[in-house]
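The records we work with from here on pair a chain with its fold. Taken together, the tokens spell out the fold as the letters spell out the chain. The record below shows the convention in full.
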Amino acid sequence: MENGYVRDEASSRAWIAEMLTEVIARFDAPLTWRLLQAFVQMGYSLGKLLPELVPNDERLLSLLPPLTELPFPTALAAAAVALKVPAEDALLGMLFSWAENQVLVCVKSVPLGQVAGQRMLLSLSALLQKSASIAMTISDDNMSNWSPGLSILSMQHEVQYSRLYRS
């Protein structure tokens, strides 16, 4: 916004759309998709294994130390599987949540009105579906969150006169 790249509804939507399809859909979303798949597989495998295990096996439990911090995609995937949310729905929910947060920043900071924000969210629907499709099919070798322009802008954030959103 400070550099003038995001200044109105059209430029806000263009920025969000490009970040969604070129960054989030190619790294964060595929990572979440893989975690969703891993938890499904892990749950299936553990379900088959558990009847074979001796209950209250302290030695076994000592091999599984509790995690003190859980990355968001891992926690989201675990929660989705635990709540029996279909993986595709959980992925779309993650993507929508990301887009909604981006739109909210623009509504408050550009500033845009609430109607413009809702219009932007509605207009991103097809791109959210496209991003989910990319995330579900992209190969491991093609996953990347490389976006030098975003990195440069993010580095400038630290020295901006006003930091509304702390990172």
Observations:
- Residues 46 and 86 are 19 Å apart (CA to CA).
- The two ends are 16 Å apart (CA to CA).
